[in-house]
């Protein structure tokens, strides 16, 4: 794995600010420690994994950390999505999914229907499939 570009605190805060400005909600950090924890989650995962994780798993760590830690007063799912996608794009990746699929993935993550590991697997599958003929839903086994 090449040198990775991580999301700095200031970038995450700017993303959150823009999401609130564009889509509404309350501005502000609920807990700085939870934000720091969420943003360091993928780096810790990389440092302490028994085998090197793939990019989808690292991206899932950002998403899961922000959604579950809920560091912002409002806009946590939106911010998590943009932080995750920014991380992937900065490192030469992206996820191919419809707007509806992305929305459903983040809702499922927030309500606990989708685990961090399932999100990483889903992101990897969607990246590998790219353009596909039928929608793939996270948690669905594409081999069945």
Automatic annotation (TrEMBL):
Pfam families: Fic (PF02661)
Top-rank taxon, per record: Bacteria
GO molecular function: kinase activity
InterPro entries: Doc, Fido, Fido-like_dom_sf, Type_II_TA_Toxin
SUPFAM superfamilies in UniProt: Fic-like (SSF140931)
NCBIfam families xref list: DOC_P1
PANTHER family, alphabetized: HOMOLOGY TO DEATH-ON-CURING PROTEIN OF PHAGE P1
Annotated protein name in UniProt: Death on curing protein
